[in-house]
Amino acid sequence: MAPNPNFAFTVTATDRATLARLGRIETPHGAVETPAFLFCATKAAVKAATPAQAEAAGTQAILANTYHLMLQPGAETVARLGGLHRFMGWDRPLMTDSGGFQIFSLGEAADEDENGRAALVRVTEEGARFRSHLDGSAHLLTPERSIEIQRLLGADLVVALDECPPSRLSREDTARSLALTHRWAKRSLEAFASGDDGRQALYGVTQGGVYPELRRDSAETISGLPFFGHAIGGCLPAQAEDVALYEVFAMAVEGLDRARPVHLLGIGGVRDIWEGVAVGADTFDCVHPTRIARHGGALTRAAKGFRINLRNARFREDAAPIEEGCDCEACRRFSRGYLHHLVKAGEITGLTLLALHNIRFMNRLMATVRASIAAGRFAAEMRAWCG
Amino acid sequence: MAPNPNFAFTVTATDRATLARLGRIETPHGAVETPAFLFCATKAAVKAATPAQAEAAGTQAILANTYHLMLQPGAETVARLGGLHRFMGWDRPLMTDSGGFQIFSLGEAADEDENGRAALVRVTEEGARFRSHLDGSAHLLTPERSIEIQRLLGADLVVALDECPPSRLSREDTARSLALTHRWAKRSLEAFASGDDGRQALYGVTQGGVYPELRRDSAETISGLPFFGHAIGGCLPAQAEDVALYEVFAMAVEGLDRARPVHLLGIGGVRDIWEGVAVGADTFDCVHPTRIARHGGALTRAAKGFRINLRNARFREDAAPIEEGCDCEACRRFSRGYLHHLVKAGEITGLTLLALHNIRFMNRLMATVRASIAAGRFAAEMRAWCG
User: Fold this and answer.
1) What's the CATH number for A8-34+65-96+143-286?
2) Do residues A101 and A133 touch, judged by C-beta distance below 8 A?
3) Which of A126, B351, B353, B380 has the greatest count of CB atoms below 10 A from its CB?
4) pTM here?
5) Which CATH architecture has domain B8-34+65-286?
6) Measured between CB atoms, does A293 come within 8 Å of chain B?
């Protein structure tokens, strides 16, 4: 595959003590300064924020979900309405995932269902057969169909279909799953190349569960294929509190081609981002910042776990903003007491304001990460944040 | 009561064929060009829009509800957090109602409850005793307490407590209710004057149901009292489709002091606004524009009833904006097809975008009304809109 002149990844600075690096991903819809956080627009909308609000909060790029959009409204409908950028009013860099993670996480949930409900997903060499969580309709997602759907959606950065192995799978089964992911990676590349019009760049996913040698094997295999970038899969949000996660990050990145951008799929905790950057990740995505907003959660540097819950009665007459010094719309204009009231009263505006704060917090966090790398003091800044 | 130099109402132009007029209400938080629509911020937030978004959509003034805020978070809490303007981040003109309408509409609903539940409201000379719809706690709202609460909230324009008689009450009972409203009006004025600090101006409410002579009597009585403005009460939203409503408007305004601003409480249909302006109303408020947004409704001039419902499957692949030529954030950036998708998918962002459109629609409508009066062709423009 010839290099695509519409896309480039440039490393502009590297940290001496860690694998952290400063970079820039160029796309037909502009550049992303890395390390960067991509906000999830699961169903083609960042939850509770308009594109104008997401932009005003400093958002560089967002990620939409192939699984959700293929089911509703359907990739062909999005294509007929001008593609995902136009559909969702987002004119900046945009990524879609492969659809795999959602299929397999829903499938795993179904396996755990003790009410005799049939599993929602079945994997064959061909692809993954699954039933829609919306209406039970049957679907087959193959590596080729995932590429086709993502082409119809038209995001700048697209991802090859992988199998996300259930957590705590045996080494043998994880190796079998990984081999399938690698065969799917090659099929994805072929499907991508056959219809490549220069408007998209493809990321290959490495897997391997918690097994160091499988992670290393996967990094080498995927690095040996002409992907534009690499994505690290299988880091389930449920594991995010587990310190071993950071070792998995390190194993997963080790052996990857360092000339390509590395995306850590589904990672969005504050500490996880520092750890991910430290082992060489360039971009991240996660529903966390907007999801916790819908439950009254606001990100702050000072709080334990980097969050407070505005539902808490202690904020009832608190005249301070969520976070002193934050320049988001919520902090510039409103007290914790007001936000407490909105959350308690079930006001949509409350969810929006918390989402805007959390988006701005993440964008400021990533700016801090980048500035610390540029200033040659990433490790010190990481210690100051994470202890 | 001496005139308050912080407030003024000036009529700058009058229509020849109708009672429509162009004016300006000046308050300590800026001026309102009339005729104007005040958006409801029931619980101190315009539903699904931030203050910045409401401002960007051209909103001049909003109205918050005393009933809701006295129960949650409580007027004293709002006062301790700096008053309503600061609490809700709104630095422009702000009105609160008296709390009466909500008490009586909830009371009427309880009367219709056939499950043996006790009525939620009981009216005496002293005031209205009612139970909170949130937790059943007992409250007494008197004319004096309504003024006290509204002083704690600190809106620019405040309203005297009235009794909203149940619709279709007999003439005799309506007359009895009206006499109570008039006694409450005098008590409200006394309570207001005793603590007047120049930061607020008081509206007196006229009632009288559907009885012309009672409406006229009320207009004269209320006009004889030194209120800054007049509000027309008892126009329940349920009657809005009823053409007789416009006759009630006319009766209610007839006999009022024309040097004072007239507010039509709870009126917000497109046709109702044209009719209201035609009989001399200056300001309006209603939950309609933001409420229908939460059910997929978008206001458009072209549609029957001035609205379309984006839930409708016919919009699935409609690439047009809600309304051609509209400069709102939703119409500038998104197709009906996208909004249909968001509404179907239950995305909060969809509710926000429809609310922003409807807010902008109403503000553009009021600008059209004002321009037509200024140009001396109000009646022609009203015919063009309402047929």
Assistant:
1) 3.20.20.105
2) no
3) B353
4) 0.94
5) Alpha-Beta Barrel (3.20)
6) no
Interface membership of A232 toward B (CB under 8 Å): no
pLDDT value, residue A250: 85
Please choose, from the candidates A109, A93, A114, the residue with its C-alpha nearest in 3D space to the C-alpha of residue A32. A93
Task: Tell which B residues from 12 to 51 touch A, by Cβ distance under 8 Å.
Answer: 43-51
Residue window 139-168, chain B: list those with CB within 8 Å of chain A: none
Q: Which residues from B are below 8 Å from A347, CB to CB?
A: 43, 45, 47
What per-residue confidence (pLDDT) applies to B115?
41
CA gap B162, B98 in Å, rounded:
8
A45 to B349: CB separation less than 8 angstroms, yes or no: yes
Contact B338 A46 (CB under 8 A): no
Write the residue in B77, B337, B348 that is nearest to A47 by C-beta. Answer: B348
Q: Check if the beta carbon of residue B233 is closer than 8 Å to that of residue B39.
A: no
Domains of chain A, residue spans: 8-34+65-96+143-286, 293-380
Give helix then strand counts, H and E, for chain A: 15, 16
Kindly state whether B1 is in contact with chain A, defined as any CB-CB distance less than 8 angstroms. no
Paired strand residues for A283: A36, A263
Contact yes or no for A81 and B342 at CB 8 A: no
Active-site residue set of B: 97, 285
Query: Using N-to-C axis directions, what is the helix angle for A270-278 and A244-253, rounded to 10°?
Result: 40
ipTM above 0.90, yes or no: yes
Peptide bond into B165 cis (omega under 30): no
CA separation for the pair A360, B169 (Å, rounded): 55
Q: Are A197 and A159 in contact (CB under 8 A)?
A: no
